[in-house]
């Protein structure tokens, strides 16, 4: 538990690096109890590596957080992989990262099989419709929580606001092509800093890769989630929704809401949501493939570049790119609430949406609690005989 803290120990001979079995056990434990997204994961990793075991110095851990936040993809997953790499090299990174990811992945695939079954029980449909109704408010809460820090870091508040608006508009209208706006905002900010080498331009030729459907389309969607997303777990929603629902028709609007809710209530990375999309596209194999593609960039960033993380943290070009892409990603998180609300089809879902807004935005209750209560309300409403979304 987060509050059961032992006195902080300084790293040194009294705190030798752990063996691979210890890394597997401790990182697997965090993967099992890490409800609440990146803030909870970071707190649990810091408690383990810095405060309890003294494996890492506090300053080194904070620098790692800063470096991971400069990379695309799930930052807390990259931090878990990096921390294990720092202790046991590449073998530690592979073991620690896998043990951090697998518990939530197994659970969310099992839940996907339940919620996406051809004829799920009425109470399951109600739970999904209830939890899904609250997802738009969760997106608003996630995006708004990132605004103050992002605004303080902005060098030019006019450009920051423009990037925020561009991301919001793109999420509400462009959907799966949001990645163009994220990259574009980053490159614009780089250009305004008169950077000679536009390092963020390399991914652009890849944007035509997902033109066809099938497994190639699934790989492209998962790649965008893992390698081209900035700004936290919720930015993956607009990156996936357009393709998963409207382009390839793997999921209905209601099922996509279920997928997002499952990604929030299960432990581990929110990026696990992509496994539900993969399951809908091609069963268990599709779910595993989507997860493999989405998490592979995080492993590669650490395995190939961890030795340069300190230099990355100080790199002005990387920070400039993120100062453009980051606000656009926050705007995208806020903007995605619009298509999520449009996906609701029953009047009682709007009532749950309003209740979730009170819990999250006014009373400041937790995301997991809010979604569990919304799902429970959906079960009760379904059992009472209300009409359910198709």
Write a structural description.
This protein is mostly helical. It has two domains: 20-102, no CATH class; 139-343, no CATH class. It has helices spanning 20-33, 38-52, 58-69, 75-115, 122-133, 135-153, 157-173, 178-192, 214-227, 236-247, 253-265, 273-305, 309-314, 316-335, 337-342, 347-362, 367-383. Residues 1-14 and 195-211 have low confidence and may be disordered.
Estimate percent helicity. over 70%
Low-confidence stretches: 1-14, 195-211
Task: Report the β-strand fraction as a percent range.
Answer: under 5%
Strands, total number: 0
User: How many H/I helical runs?
Assistant: 17
Brief write-up:
By secondary structure, the chain is mainly alpha-helical. It folds into 2 domains: about 20-100, no CATH class; about 140-345, no CATH class. The protein is built from 17 helices and no strands.
Record keyword descriptors for this entry.
390 residues, mainly alpha, 2 domains, globular
Write the layout of secondary structure elements.
Elements: H1 20-33, H2 38-52, H3 58-69, H4 75-115, H5 122-133, H6 135-153, H7 157-173, H8 178-192, H9 214-227, H10 236-247, H11 253-265, H12 273-305, H13 309-314, H14 316-335, H15 337-342, H16 347-362, H17 367-383
Helix pairs in contact: 1-2, 1-4, 2-4, 3-4, 4-11, 4-12, 5-11, 5-16, 5-17, 6-14, 6-16, 7-8, 7-14, 8-14, 9-10, 9-12, 11-12, 16-17
């Amino acid at each position: 538990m987060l509050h059961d803290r032992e006195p902080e120990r300084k790293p040194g001979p009294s705190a030798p690096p752990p063996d691979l079995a210890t890394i597997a056990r401790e990182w697997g434990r965090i993967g099992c109890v890490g409800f609440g997204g990146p803030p909870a994961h970071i707190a649990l990793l810091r408690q383990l590596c810095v405060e309890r075991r003294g494996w890492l110095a506090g300053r080194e851990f904070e620098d790692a957080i800063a470096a991971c936040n400069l990379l695309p993809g799930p930052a807390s997953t990259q931090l878990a992989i990096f921390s294990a790499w720092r202790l046991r090299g590449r073998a530690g990174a592979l073991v620690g990262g896998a043990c951090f990811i697998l518990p939530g992945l197994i659970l969310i695939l099992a839940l996907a099989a339940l919620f996406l079954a051809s004829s799920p029980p009425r109470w399951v449909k109600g739970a999904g419709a209830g939890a899904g109704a609250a997802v738009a408010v969760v997106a608003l809460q996630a995006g708004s929580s990132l605004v103050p820090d992002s605004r303080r870091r902005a060098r030019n508040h006019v450009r920051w606001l423009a990037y925020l608006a561009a991301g919001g508009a793109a999420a509400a209208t462009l959907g799966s092509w949001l990645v163009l706006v994220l990259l574009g905002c980053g490159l614009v900010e780089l250009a305004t800093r008169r950077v000679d080498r536009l390092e963020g331009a390399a991914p652009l030729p890849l944007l035509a890769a997902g033109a066809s459907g099938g497994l190639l389309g699934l790989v492209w969607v998962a790649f965008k989630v893992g390698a081209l997303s900035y700004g936290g777990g919720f930015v993956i929603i607009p990156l996936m929704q357009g393709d998963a629902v409207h382009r390839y028709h793997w999921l209905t609007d209601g099922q996509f809401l279920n997928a997002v809710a499952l990604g929030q209530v299960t432990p581990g990375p929110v990026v696990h949501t992509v496994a539900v999309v993969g399951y809908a596209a091609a069963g268990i194999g599709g779910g595993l493939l989507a997860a493999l593609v989405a998490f592979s960039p995080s492993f590669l960033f650490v395995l190939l570049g961890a030795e340069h993380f300190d230099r990355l943290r100080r790199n002005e070009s990387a920070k400039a790119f993120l100062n453009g892409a980051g606000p656009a990603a926050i705007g995208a998180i806020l903007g995605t609430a619009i298509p999520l609300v449009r996906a609701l089809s029953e009047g009682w879902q709007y009532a749950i949406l309003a209740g979730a807004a009170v819990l999250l935005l006014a009373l400041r209750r937790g995301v997991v609690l809010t979604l569990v209560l919304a799902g429970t309300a959906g079960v009760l409403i379904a059992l009472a005989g209300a009409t359910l979304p198709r």
